[in-house]
Hints:
Elements: H1 5-12, H2 19-32, H3 37-49, H4 56-72, E1 84-89, H5 96-109, E2 114-119, H6 126-137, E3 141-142, H7 150-163, E4 168-173, H8 181-197, E5 202-210, H9 215-227, E6 232-236, H10 245-254, E7 258-262, E8 270-272, H11 275-282
Helix pairs in contact: 1-2, 2-3, 4-10, 4-11, 5-6, 7-8, 9-10
Amino acid sequence: MKFKLGERLNRIFGGKKEKEEIIVDIEELLITADFGVEFTEEILDELREHTFSSSEENTSMLLKEIIKEKMELSYPREQGDGLTAHLIFGVNGTGKTTSVGKLAYKLKQAGRNVLIAAADTYRDAAIEQLLIWSKRADVPVIRQFQGSDAGAVVFDACDAAVSRGVQDLLIDTAGRLHNKETLMKELAKIGVILDRKLLGANRRKLLVLDATTGQNALSQAALFKEYIGVDGIILTKLDSSAKGGIACAVSGKLKIPIYYAGTGEKIQDLIDFKVDEYLTMLFS
């Protein structure tokens, strides 16, 4: 993440400025950093309620605490014991299949028994791409062929997960545009299969978002949340040109926790997202 909020905040504090002047400058900065207009206003409303000096250190600390409090309202995210089915979805181009491979590797390295379901039967070469990542992660895949019924793949994967004593079933689904009604219905159908086949199992609906798409990512999250619900976010490409505020907006505004962040192209470049560490980096 190349956008450093702390450096830019420092530029605001120069000469004698009234409190409201500082707030106006901060507003422009936060919107530029992809916090979004509505979430920025929420932050500034709280900032106005506090007495703060016209010093960069004091205001940065206060601003960071306000954002942290809003983001942490969406946590904790702990799951119980037993099998967890991770239904992973998102629009094309966000790095969804790559994230499935990275998450499979991460869980396998933690000593978990992992299985992948190749339910993206729509996109050309999606299964082949997933097989490459699964081989790197050393995790088996339940698959059929391109164009087959995604629900049938998930059905078979559920049976396999139970018979093999799997702890984490990762389901890679077709990249869905949030305005494609048919594909969204297919995703809901997969959810029904999981309800029937894995009764009592833990469930996670994970939305993959590209951090570099800014407010478009926030719109995607809002629509997916409304349509099928979202338990958590995998935020990709956080190491590139992402401005940073989108993570705060998704988590703080929509109250959806960010579970993982993609920080590079290697299979190990998927980390647990920690609010404190992220804000420290953002405000540096």
